[in-house]
Amino acid sequence: MRSLPLTLVARLLPVAVLAAAGVAMTTSDDSDTSATPAGPSPQTSAPATGAAAPRYAKPPEEACTVLPESMIKDLVPGAKPTGNELKSSDLNRRTGCSWHALDDFDYRWLDIAYDVKSVAGKQKSEGGSAVPGLGDDASVTEKTTKDDDQDIREAVVTVHQDNATVTVTYNGGDFESHKAADSDDIRKGAIGAAKKALAALDG
């Protein structure tokens, strides 16, 4: 691997900080007083008369193991398969994991987040393009952002299945050419990871 020029190192430092900030924002969101508080565990509270029991009691306990190592190596070359667990104040509702790495000059970042509500009911995505055949409802949004002279392409897949929501964020760019990652690769990578993450809900 070629050594990174000092200007590139300086550019990558904010990227690492932003990745850490993403974890912090996920944590702080859990403590937001405006958020809907988690209800009692479905196992300890009987559902209302005539109401359907929720399909999922809680999200996967070890979110960093829901994707096969081969997929992580393919989507985020150079990342440690163990990933970075996203902390949550309520692990019976929210869990997640992220992976990020710079392979030569090619940067990739992947994040998976689970949110399981205590009540049953189908949910619907707002905005984005529909992703047929994935959960009860799924959509993908795509965008390209520019920071200085560097383009980053990102796809976010949101999947609803009964009382669970799975959100996958995948982005990347080439820090040598300054170009964003290929649109098709980012979109397909995000959808593929979402399929695996959703399947993990059923064990």
- Overall mean pLDDT stands at 82
Query: What share of the residues does DSSP label as strand, in percent?
Result: 25-35%
Biggest sheet strand line-up? 1-2-3-7-6-5-4
Number of helices: 3
Number of strands: 7
Q: What is the assembly state of the chains in this entry? A: single chain
Low-pLDDT stretches are 1-49
C-alpha Rg (nearest Å):
18 Å
Shape: globular
H/E element string? HHEEEEEEEH
Give keywords.
Jelly Rolls; transferase; 7-stranded antiparallel beta sheet; 29% strand; 203 residues; glycosyltransferase; 24% helix; alpha+beta; disordered N terminus; signal; Membrane-bound mannosyltransferase
Textual characterization of the structure:
The protein is 24% helix and 29% strand. It has a seven-stranded antiparallel β-sheet with strand order 1-2-3-7-6-5-4, with helices on both faces. The radius of gyration is 18 Å and the shape is globular. The protein has 203 residues and is an alpha+beta fold. It has a domain at 69-201: Jelly Rolls. The model is unreliable at 1-49 (pLDDT under 50).
